[in-house]
Amino acid sequence: AAMTSGAARERLDMNAYRERLEARLGKSREMMRVVLNKAKSNPKRVALAEGEDEKMIRAAYQMQEEGIAEPILVGKTTTILRKAEELGLDFDPTIANPRDGEWDHYVDRLYELRQRKGVTKSEAEELVRRDSNYFASVMVEVGDADAMLTGLTHHYPSALRPPLQIIGTAADANYAAGVYMMTFKNRVVFCADTTVNLDPDEEILAEITKHTADLARQFNVEPRAALLSYSNFGSVTNEGTRKPRDAAALLQGDPEVDFPVDGEMQADTALVEDILEGTYDFAELDGPANVLVFPNLEAGNIGYKLLQRLGGAEAIGPMLVGMDKPVHVLQRGDEVKDIVNLAATAVVDAQEEE
Ligand code: ACO
Fold first, then answer.
1. ipTM metric
2. Residue nearest to atom 30 of ligand 1 (CA)
């Protein structure tokens, strides 16, 4: 009898789990639908630096079929066409092959941008022809593509460096940062920085907060930002807790900031309305935070992964913010749906640049 009731309980647990899973996917689908619809209204050219990768080819097919983006596969034409055929994909992809002769103006541009950073003309030639992350970065920089995706087959830092060097940050930005959108049943939070800045100071934290709030608005989410720490509003004072506190102060004094922001605070303070309205009723937040800015890369990277693996959140990202043009560096092992989702966010980003 004990066994039966155990099995029954397990079934009940499974059903409850499935319901929760459905509800959660419902939210993330709803969030992505906003972006996918925006993307389809005016699709943009997205350079896929790893154009010979099968997942990239499948993602390109899907983007093109669904009208989300106009993909440009960077790579060897014969390889891409052969793989597309093997995959049974009936499409005529746009391909840019760095090895064939037409890219002298890319070499010139890369040389122009990097000659005072130690790059010689022949090195520029080598980078354009042999390193598709440089090729795609130049393609976006000169305006032959509107956005860029990479990272599936590279370590994150090595895929990130070329776009940082060639495309660089936006006019109103000094630092790029990686944001994950985490969706739960009835809730969505944007986590930053999860992938770029190792030990940001208060200025960098403030900048990351602004870019992340802008990104939230692209998903039709009104931002409420918390600078996270292990301390609540001065309960512990040291260099580590000072930075998020000073970042919050900078943002509160910034006339351009038109969203509620506060800190430093602990994660539960940021997320639990009762704590915010009880003990810390003086806080600027009028509801639980949905933009969570972590004090450093360890906290941010570990934090979002815990939310994903233990908290059961669906993760969309990392979305690179602060760049002059939309660039997203995927994680190795990401799936076709992740690529398509990030391409859609890049398209929306590109639309807003117009
Ligand atoms: N924002 C914008 N531009 C930057 C940043 C930044 N945060 N950091 C460096 N740059 C620029 C530099 O100004 C430089 O430009 P320049 O050459 O025109 O002057 C260019 O990028 C390259 O800078 P380097 O100093 O050569 O690069 P660095 O060694 O600092 O590397 C990098 C930069 C790759 C971002 C590094 O900070 C890094 O490795 N960060 C951590 C990445 C990581 O491991 N993430 C976690 C894992 S990823 C994951 O889980 C998805």
1. 0.96
2. 161
